[in-house]
Amino acid sequence: MARITAIEAFPVPPRWIFIRVTDEDGNCGWGEPILPKRRDAILGAITDFSRRLIGQDASRIEDIFQQMRKGAFFRRGPVLCSAAAGIEIALWDLKARRAGLPIHDFLGGRVRDRIRSYCWIGGDRPADVVAHAGERITAGFSAVKMNATTSVPMLGYHAQIDALVERMGLLRDAYGTGLDIALDLHGRVPRTALKELIREVEPFRPMWLEEAWLPEAEDTQSMLASLSPHIPIATGERLLDRWDFKRLLDRGGVDIVQPDVSITGLFELEKIARLAEVHDVAVAPHCPNGPVSLAASLQVGFCCANVAIQEQSLGLHYNQGYDGLPAADLLDYLDDPAPLTTRAGAFEWLGGPGLGIGLNAGGINAARDESRMPDNDWRHPDGSFAEW
Q1: Please, are residues 122 and 128 in contact by the beta-carbon 8 Å criterion?
Q2: Same domain for 239 and 279
Q3: Between the N and C ends of the chain, which has fewer C-beta atoms within 10 Å?
Q4: pTM of the entire structure?
Q5: Number of domains present in the structure of the chain
């Protein structure tokens, strides 16, 4: 047994938080929460959890995770879940490093040698997608994702849909159907516009439609299944745990689930993937995050056969000085970028101990940054709030 002696949080550019958990023998592991727009809340939750966890046995990961998720009368929610997930990932990294094994060896072992990946194109308000997609293809990728639209009003949305059709047409004219294109609706498209949007994009054969409804708009899910029999439906990045995903899967009509390890935690992501497998549903983990979150997602992908593809943030617009924030990219904080460098659009097996990556602790400490990612204040022409 080795007791936890320190839990430290490091906010760094572009919008990430790394967590380091250290035990009494001097061993450490790294984790990563998400929610960059609620950075101070996440840091506060990490501090709150730390008061309870210092001195506990670092090897009792599931017990500690239960304490963080259930140890208060008022619980759950994305802030508490993400802070707990970051600490839990670090505990897995610590435990597996002590054993000299990759994390996936604790979860059934390897089922594949590589995992296909995709990158983003186009930014928040999609533009220049043809040139951007060409760069991704040159880098070896055969799959990309873009936001489908800017903000969409409840009525008078034809211009946004026409612009989407034009972008999809340009991409197909340039690259044919050999390029898989996922469309992220980002919860921006109201129910009134979904029927027309789906009808118009179906001929372009998108890889999937993502987050076509907000998590609280569950009734739209059943409507969408009847509207889109030929386009795979993907969702789940804002859901918290297997109970959320059970309700999602029980309602039906979802083909791909997209849990985010920095919200669910690593072992919970594995459990969600097993649950999805029972429903013959694929998993495409959500990860526009930093390298620790990516490595944690890949650890699950290497032991769960229904993980079909992995998102990553290399070159993502958020990493490039978004809204005045300092810039940094996916590989910048690694001792060795090789483990998270794709080859022919895929990640090779992470066989090293723990998460399979090494972080540059000195560089992370030197890069500490107090910048906060601002809330987006998107507005419709009438001044009303628009979904981001």
Answers
A1: yes
A2: yes
A3: N
A4: 0.96
A5: 2
